[in-house]
């Protein structure tokens, strides 16, 4: 059985900061075809659907749709704040290669 993705405390904390300023929404992490490596991550605030996997922590939710779930099995969703910018990141053990920006990958 595939392991579900994990969300770090840092990612949940950043999501709480984002949601503190208004309407509380889950962070949706999805996989779509495209990008320079074949697949790309889509990360956005969205409503949860009834068939989504919901990951909870720190009073926040991250949702993954059933189609994206196999591509994200065992992945770690994190938040980084570096000199080049702040963003949610995904460390995906299923990716065989990825582009330099980290939003596109291949399996």
From TrEMBL:
Domain of life per record: Bacteria
InterPro entries xrefs: ATAP (IPR016092), ATAP_core_dom (IPR000361), FeS_cluster_insertion_CS (IPR017870), HesB-like_dom_sf (IPR035903)
GO molecular function, one term: 2 iron, 2 sulfur cluster binding
Membrane-spanning residues: none
GO biological process, one term: iron-sulfur cluster assembly
Residue intervals of the Core domain: 6-102
NCBIfam families tied to this protein: iron-sulfur cluster assembly accessory protein (TIGR00049)
Name of the protein in question: Iron-sulfur cluster assembly accessory protein
Organism: Paracoccus homiensis
């Amino acid at each position: 059985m595939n392991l579900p993705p994990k969300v770090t405390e840092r990612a949940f904390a950043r999501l709480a900061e984002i949601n503190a300023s208004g309407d509380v929404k889950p962070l949706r992490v999805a996989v779509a075809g495209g990008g320079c490596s074949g697949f790309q991550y889509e990360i956005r605030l969205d409503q949860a659907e009834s068939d989504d996997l919901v990951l909870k922590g720190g009073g926040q939710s991250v949702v993954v749709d059933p189609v994206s779930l196999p591509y994200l099995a065992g992945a770690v969703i994190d938040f980084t704040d570096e000199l080049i910018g702040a963003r949610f990141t995904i460390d995906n053990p299923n990716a065989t290669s990825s582009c330099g920006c980290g939003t596109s990958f291949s399996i």
